[in-house]
Write the structure tokens for this entry.
Amino acid sequence: MEGKWWKEAVIYQIYPRSFMDSNGDGIGDLKGIISKIDYLVELGVSCVWLCPVYKSPNCDNGYDISDYRDIMDDFGTLEIWEELLHELHKHNIRLVMDLVVNHSSDENQWFVESRSSLDNPKRDYYIWRSAKPDGSLPNNWMACFGGPAWEYDKTTDQYYLHLFAIKQPDLNWESQHLREEIQSMMKFWLDKGIDGFRMDAISYISKVAGLPDGKGKGEPGTGFEHYAQGPHIHEYLHELNTKVLSNYDCMTVGEVSYVDLKDGIDFSGPDRQEINMIYMYDLLGMDKGEKRWQIRDWKLPEFKSIICKWQKGLSGKGWNSLYISNHDIPRAVSRYGNDSPEYRIVSAKMLATMNHTLQGTPYIYQGEEIGMTNVKFDSIDDYDDIEIRNFYYENEETHERTREDIMASIHHFGRDNSRTPMQWDSSPNAGFTTGKPWIKINPNYQSINVAESLSDPNSVFHYYQKLIKMRKELPILIDGHFDSYYEDDLNLFVYTRTLENQVLFIALNFSNSTQNLAIPSNLSLEGSKLVISNYENDESSIPKQLRPYEAIVYLKN
Ligand code: ISL
Ligand code: CA
């Protein structure tokens, strides 16, 4: 397990639709990414995770794949993709592709064949059931994007299961033929030279036998307990590992929603031969109330206890991904920091400090490195995301919530917060496109953009650059043991990383007021040197107070 490149990597996540448009059609594309490789080099990241670029009718922006071995026309061609891979590798940046195999698109040839007749050889590639004798749906499961998880198909008078959108039928992993097809598709990409896979919704691939009714409503939907970390999940991952992945120098990161610690260890334990690291979701439920997308106040101790549980629990036993934003969640600075003009920059840097000093592999989601924020569109018509739109229309229909209330939830949780185009400069459309962007640009692009960030030595961008460099220079950040202090403190997150005689001391102020900082009594930190801070600080003495959103990192050798 020692010396694995993916432990030392800093991974940059690209959502291709919103990154850079090269041909003025308003949609980001592969050539656009190629044109920005120098930017990634300047930032210093060593790996890119590219969200799906395969052929897709785009009901869920590429997470509904109709051809696993070809590229979406909007994004380019397989040839241009090869060029992207080549260019990234030339610049010492690895490429991790998204692997979406809990479901495919209903336009995938597999599904077209599967639905055609009861005895089609690919019938069992998907999960088909008849109605119950009383005519009701096969079970009460709800889809993650709203509505029942079953869709009727009249050709064979049966229903198919879809845990996400209607156009995303779930694949049946119990079929050995299906598993072999997936293995061969993974080889196709690995043989082209990619460096690994991010496995989408992978903890959902095994469903409990008999597909029993679920226990009532919950997040993400009724029935969850029967398919999240189902009975064969570890067996299936082990099979992919031994049959395919172990033959390549590649990494895998599994998106595992709401799993427990034991499973987290089983997924990522080095001796288990399943996946290399987990990408867990616990933090994301923290600010959600009982009802879907209900806003709930959170306190720092809850936030810390989730992080500490995984830091301590996986230590020496598994490996974690570190992230504060991605394409499915609101912007970190708006959610956990403070996106007011006064504190945006300093709080974005504070959160970044945390994400690069915990144990695990840090991920940066495009735009996070310049402190991009959430967006508040007034009209539902300005939103594109299927989850947001379903949420809006379902709630509008029931009249249980006011329009203001519905929009407040969308502004807070909606996935389009992080999908507005990358803000490159202050020219029209933020330099993202010369045409009409597929989704509106965040109106704050004139002040928050890459050009501005590159020209300011104190920018969020330059701070990220330093953090990435710091990780390369300090092995303690990879292997150091994690301990935390003052876990009940409402404002400060204080922890150390320890490796042999070295101690790295990290203190973060999550509040907008000055807080006293006492050095934990069991630590002797005399002679510590400043490694990084988001304010001016003394090189060799740890401050006794932390200013609003201040972050400090000191190293005792
Ligand atoms: O169900 C959820 C929220 O409603 C999440 O826990 C879920 O596991 C997560 O949203 C899965 O996300 C991934 O798969 C989706 C896709 O829309 C997302 O963009 C992707 O990250 C379906 O492929
Ligand atoms: Ca384009």
